[in-house]
Specification:
The chain has three domains: about 170 residues, D-Maltodextrin-Binding Protein, domain 2; about 110 residues, Dipeptide-binding Protein, domain 1 (Alpha-Beta Complex); about 200 residues, Roll (Dipeptide-binding Protein, domain 3), CATH 3.10.105. About 30% of the residues lie in helices and about 20% in strands. The strands form four sheets. It has a seven-stranded mixed β-sheet with strand order 8-9-10-1-11-18-12. The chain has a five-stranded mixed β-sheet with strand order 15-14-16-13-17. A four-stranded antiparallel β-sheet has the order 4-5-7-6, with helices on one face.
């Protein structure tokens, strides 16, 4: 079946949705699972393109395999490729393909897959993966069912990159599973890819496993689950957390993914007081992270962050924590008050810090805590919309793989206007390094530079949550915040 885009019905107000859904409960059947994805923006699901929302990524992963994929626990598993080898220098990846077909029955060939990969790598230069795909030098089809991908520098996490949903391949609109599109009228409905032939149907019962997929605002998605109309809710974020408590969702149904990524304030304008790194440091040391994080309902042990790269990726002998990390909160506040007082005496009043945040209850909690902390040292803040002029915006992104490279690339001059050219130069040097130890050390030095530049103020580890009942088939928390559809009904990816 050729994929075609779909538009959803207009979203009803949440209160009306709860009323309408009151009679929509159903008896749970593990072979028929209804899933809804929370989206703050457009709820349109279209797996074609390069800038996919979470729902579109979820659908693309379901109907368009890449060479490899991710299972429900976030592990890389075979998809189009049955197996692979990596050269000792990390510059060559050789894949042997399964003997398989597209959903129109045409054979999957190495030549066609290589061509589609070249096209996809080119398309993704305008996506969240743009910095990674630029390291691909060429894609070659070899004898038999073998293709080779050559890199211009080692990328230790290249398999994780290839497993991202954006790397799923379509040939003329046709995917290769692990699921196929049944319908897209009111909601998208997906079933087993390898449906039995007419001859097989004569002798065995047709497989009745399917997943329905929709996308909608958080309030409606939670109400739909509360009413028993869906079994799984995906893509919950920090600013949606107050809705869970209001809906009375059981704590046992809330699943927190142990993700890594960036959650903090990224400067997009630096004027006046905030143009000086030493002043931006005041914001970093003033935020009372433990008090802020415990202000959110339904989350315990939300981990704070003072640096950019997770501790698990640190290099021995290089300390990338800010100088004030060992100070008590009381001492930090005293230092900040004195610093601000001296600045005002010399330079005059400081304009409120404009913080761009979503229009959501959780974002209000975040803002009020930061505003309160700033007022304690003689500064102020104002909340503005995401499309309004601001000094800082919240960066809330999950890392697609475990590498310092990803974290640092989010803070380059290509990613944000308040940046450090020297850091960009050293990142380029690190990318070109073929020795992995040297590469890691260069990245650690870059982190030290950016920590002291304060163009990004780390606050915490990102929060990603789902709702699913205990024992839900094929669902597991994982470090990628990723939940494929096929395991929910027992359909393997390969």
């Amino acid at each position: 079946m050729i994929f075609r885009s779909t538009s959803w019905f207009k979203i009803l107000p949440a209160a009306l949705a709860v009323t309408l859904l009151g009679s929509c409960g159903f008896a749970g059947d593990e072979d028929q699972v209804r899933v809804t994805v929370i989206e703050d923006g457009s709820t349109r699901i279209n797996p074609v393109g390069t800038r996919l929302n979470f729902a579109s990524s979820t659908m693309r992963a379901a109907i368009a395999k890449g060479l490899v994929g991710l299972d429900e626990q976030g592990r890389v598993v075979p998809a189009l490729a049955a197996r692979w080898i990596v050269s000792d220098d990390g510059l060559s990846y050789i894949f042997r393909l399964f003997d398989a077909k597209w959903d129109d029955g045409r054979e999957i060939t190495a030549e066609r897959v290589a061509r589609l990969l070249r096209e996809r790598f080119s398309e993704l230069r305008n996506s969240r993966l743009q910095y990674d795909v630029s390291e691909v030098e060429e894609v070659l089809s070899m004898t038999g069912r073998v293709i080779e991908i050559r890199l211009d520098s080692p990328h230790p996490n290249f398999l994780q990159l290839l497993a991202q949903p954006e790397m799923g391949l379509f040939r003329a609109g046709h995917g290769a599973g692990p699921m196929r599109l049944l319908s897209e009228e009111d909601v998208i409905k997906l079933s087993r890819f390898d449906e039995p032939s007419e001859e097989e149907q004569d002798v065995e019962e047709e497989d009745d496993r399917w997943v329905s997929l929709r996308s909608e605002p958080a309030a409606i998605a939670i109400a739909r689950y509360r009413a028993g109309a869906v079994q799984v809710v995906l893509n919950g974020k920090y600013h949606h957390l107050p809705l869970i408590g209001a809906a009375g969702i059981s704590s046992g149904d809330i699943r927190l993914d142990p993700v890594a990524g960036l959650f903090g304030l990224r400067f997009i304008r630096a004027e006046g007081f905030w143009a000086v790194p030493e002043n931006r440091e005041i914001l970093a040391m003033t935020i009372n992270r433990p008090a802020l994080l415990t202000s959110f309902p339904g989350v315990s042990a939300w981990q704070s962050r003072l640096k950019i790269i997770p501790e698990a990726l640190d290099v021995d002998g290089i300390n990338t924590y800010p100088d004030w990390a060992s100070m008590t909160m009381q001492d930090r506040m005293a230092y900040a008050r004195n610093h601000v007082s001296r600045w005002k005496a010399s330079e005059g009043p400081v304009a409120p810090l404009a913080i761009a945040l979503p229009d959501a209850a959780g974002a209000d909690i975040l803002f009020k805590r930061i505003q309160s902390d700033l007022r304690r040292v003689g500064l102020n803040a104002q909340k503005v919309g995401l499309n309004q002029a601001a000094d800082v915006q919240l960066l809330d992104e999950i890392a697609p793989y475990d590498s310092p490279q990803w974290f640092l690339k989010q803070l380059t001059c290509m990613a944000t206007p308040v940046c450090l050219n020297d850091a960009d130069t050293q990142i380029t040097e690190a990318e070109a390094a073929t020795n992995l130890e040297i590469k890691a050390r260069l990245y650690a030095e870059v982190e030290n530079m950016l920590v002291n530049h304060y163009n990004f103020i780390p606050i915490a580890v990102p929060i990603r949550w789902s709702i699913a009942r205990q024992g839900q088939r094929g669902f597991a928390v994982n470090p990628r915040g990723w939940h494929p559809l096929n395991p929910l009904v027992g359909i393997p990816i390969s």
